[in-house]
Amino acid sequence: MAIQIPFRNLLTITLAASLLAACVTHPTTGRQQLMLISDAQVTKMSYQAYEEMKGQQPLLPASHAYTQRVNRIADRIVQQAIQQYPASRNLAWEINVFQDDSPNAFAMAGGKMGVNSGLIDRFQLTDDELAQVIAHEVAHVVSGHTREKMSIAMSQQLGLDLAGLVLGLNEGAMQLASQIGQLAISLPFSRTMEFEADRIGIELAARAGYHPQAAMTLWEKLRRDSGPRPPEWLSTHPADERRMAEIQRLIPQMMPLYQAAR
What we know:
The chain has helices spanning 7-21, 39-56, 65-84, 117-123, 127-142, 145-167, 171-207, 214-225, 240-261, and strands at residues 23-25, 32-34, 94-98, 105-108, 112-116. By secondary structure, it is mainly alpha-helical. The chain has one domain (37-261). α3 crosses α5 (127-142) and α8 (214-225) runs antiparallel to α9.
């Protein structure tokens, strides 16, 4: 006798199976990552977005001291990333200095990165501190965090659509469910990725010959400059105190790598 599975249960089982099949294991931390989108897709989208950014925002020329400095440091760190994560050898790595006063740096899938001139100006970063910034962004790339964030957003939307179909939720209930999903899923995962990038970044910088203690001096500068922040549970980033405590814990572990590189 055939077993009859209710339609709503079948949808739930299908969605759960799809999510499980799309999980991969992070090579360094062992964390399970949801990857619904292919690497090729997200890389293509990132490359297109990066080219648009370069066309819309002024870049410091290749001859500028900041550009030369950033590229020199990035080259050393990317070399270490390729050694530790061989698949990243195939990426079209690129980093530019954007002429922008806001103190920011970013990374996209596929190895596209940027540092704003305002970050270097405002904090008067040493090479070791700038290396921590760049290594953190490289860590996001080799960890596939852009792809993972897009996959989480897609899974949440699929889950909302399923809930709306099965439970008959109205627009207000759907918005509430979306907000709950942000607090319970998206933001915690984002904070986990930041911790992960801190951990991998400080290691890559140490292997490239940049002092691990600079991660602390960098954060001390950033913290002094920062204004009021929302509670951690409402933020995409961990609280400064927890982040700095974890970095301080990692420094002794990274010192042998730094000493070997020097």
